[in-house]
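User: Please fill in residues for this 423-position structure.
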């Protein structure tokens, strides 16, 4: 039997060695109402049963409620103030350039995945979009690939030759529910054949951007997820899932048109063209389903204008909060050197854009649904095992999921030989 340490410490948090294979899934854009409505419709029979013997909780995600900051918080167990990934996109002051935050050079903390792999665990990561792969797999030995590029995997780079052939499914479109199903199908196949100690799965929110909770399309998508989670449970895994963020309608209820505050246009009219710089951290290469419109923005302003701009923006319709950099970073746990002079958060039904001319909304074939603000902060946190008593008043975050799954789960009635992991 291969020996391993009793626990691994990462970013100041201790994680017990898994007593059975652990699967953690980040279901992109999955506000709690998606699973609740799907269960009510009979679309998630496994989850409906598993709730009785597991932990069915709600946690807060990281704000900005976007993909990169939250996935990296989940796999590091800490906030962006520590790991450094505060958006999908940011203004790099040193390079004087607006860039994607996909490069591991921007990551300031090690991951739980890499630490367990280094300690001898078999670790695998499957993500829907390739934009996350290098960040999630940074410093990690093991299997790490994306659905998007499953036709181009090699053992040298991804830990697996020909992932497409291994999974036995066609390469999915990046704009499809199939992209997420490929993640789950690959996860089940890996668990059957390789049996990793830790498996991290991360999907895409294509369905949630287009379909509200309880709709037939959403329920069908969650029925698919339920089938795969049930198979992982049947394989003897601890199965845990959360979300990187929720999702809300961001459109006029009568006309269906997007509700948008075009912030760069506002600043150009107030301060002069080009005097301010607006950064939308939602920006990534996949904008067809949201047009790069989310509910969080940061802005770089001319010297001496911050206080006045905060006052003026606070009075605009659709704006929920306007915070100074220091205040926003304290409230949301963000790195000050990667944020602008102010942070702007819009209300539940409103998004923030740059300039009207810079957003191509022609690809929107349904009323706009998006995320990014405080109104998308609620996320499910489910584990198919009971969790022991938590400290009174402890705020739950989506990035507590590894801590709860490894440190706080208690002995199952059907497996009395299990040790009890203590928090």
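Assistant: Residues filled in for all 423 positions:
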């Amino acid at each position: 039997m291969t020996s391993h340490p009793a626990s691994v410490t990462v970013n100041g948090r201790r994680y017990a060695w898994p007593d059975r294979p652990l699967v953690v899934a980040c279901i992109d854009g999955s506000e709690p109402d998606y699973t609740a409505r799907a269960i009510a419709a009979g679309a998630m029979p496994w989850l409906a049963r598993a709730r009785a013997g597991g932990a069915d909780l709600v946690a807060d995600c990281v704000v900005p409620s976007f993909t990169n900051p939250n996935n990296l918080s989940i796999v590091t167990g800490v906030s962006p103030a520590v790991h450094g990934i505060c958006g999908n996109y940011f203004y790099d002051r040193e390079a004087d350039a607006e860039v994607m935050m996909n490069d591991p050079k921007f990551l300031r903390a090690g991951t739980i995945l890499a630490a367990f792999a280094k300690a001898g665990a078999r670790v695998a990561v499957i993500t829907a979009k390739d934009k996350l792969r290098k960040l999630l797999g940074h410093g990690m030995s093991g299997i790490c690939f994306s659905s998007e590029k499953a036709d181009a995997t090699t053992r040298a780079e991804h830990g697996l030759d020909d992932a497409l052939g291994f999974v036995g499914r066609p390469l999915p479109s990046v704009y499809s529910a199939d992209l997420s199903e490929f993640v789950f199908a690959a996860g089940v196949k890996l668990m059957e054949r390789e049996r990793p100690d830790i498996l991290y799965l991360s999907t895409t929110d294509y369905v949630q951007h287009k379909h509200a909770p309880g709709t037939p399309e959403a329920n069908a998508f969650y029925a698919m997820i339920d089938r795969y989670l049930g198979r992982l449970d049947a394989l003897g895994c601890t199965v845990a899932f959360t979300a990187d963020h929720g999702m809300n309608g961001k459109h006029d209820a009568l006309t269906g048109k997007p509700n948008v505050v075009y912030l760069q246009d506002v600043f150009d009219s107030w301060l002069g063209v080009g005097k301010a710089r607006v950064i939308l951290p939602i920006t990534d290469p996949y904008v067809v389903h949201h047009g790069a419109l989310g509910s969080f923005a940061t802005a770089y302003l001319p010297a001496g204008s911050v206080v006045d701009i905060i006052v003026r923006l606070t009075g605009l319709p659709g704006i929920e909060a306007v915070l100074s950099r220091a205040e926003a970073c304290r409230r949301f746990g963000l790195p000050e050197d990667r944020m602008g002079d102010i942070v702007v958060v819009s209300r539940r039904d409103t998004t923030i854009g740059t300039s009207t001319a810079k957003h191509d909304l022609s690809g929107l074939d349904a009323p706009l649904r998006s995320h990014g603000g405080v109104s998308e902060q609620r996320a499910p946190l489910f584990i198919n095992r009971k969790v022991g008593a938590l400290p009174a008043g402890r705020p739950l975050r989506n990035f507590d999921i590894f801590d709860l799954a490894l440190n706080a789960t208690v002995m199952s009635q059907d497996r009395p030989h299990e040790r009890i992991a203590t928090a």
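For context: The chain has 15 helices and 19 strands.
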